[in-house]
Amino acid sequence: WVLGQGTLRKTYYPVFRTNSAAQRERFDVLADELELTYKTVRANDPDWPTELRPSEGGATLGRILYALGAPRQGDALQTSLIPAYVYHYPAHAQQFASIWALHHGDDADPMTITVPPQFGVQFADALGMLFETLSWDARRVGERTFEVASTPVESSFSPR
Known about the structure:
The structure is a single chain. By secondary structure, the chain is of the alpha+beta class. It is built from 5 helices and 7 strands; from the N terminus they run αββαββααβαββ. The protein is globular and about 40 Å long. Strands 1-2-4-3 form a 4-stranded antiparallel β-sheet. Strands 5-7-6 form a 3-stranded antiparallel β-sheet, with helices on one face. β6 (about 135-140) and β7 form a beta hairpin.
């Protein structure tokens, strides 16, 4: 989530951002599964995304996220890649891809997913290979853009 839409501060404190009800619902599922309590900042500000900040243990969570591959604030995103553990656990791969689509996909049919420029083409290449591994019906239509006709349905969402 931090890689897709958030930040890991220099102090390792994570800030998660949401721009839609669907993102907020998905985050609530994750927080519930992880027993993560959080506070909401700027929920009704139309000029800023809503921020969800851990109420306790934030720096510890942030250090774990960093160890798993989340970049800290100020790190060059062009060198960020999909975290290595994703390639070893299909359930995590599916979650990573679906959360990325939730943040960077549109509501069209077929969905267009665009990798922001700050991540570069190398990240888009890795994301394309992940879509292929997951058997998503996705095709690359630009340097950083994918058209996704369908994704395998998740029978039950669980971050484990």
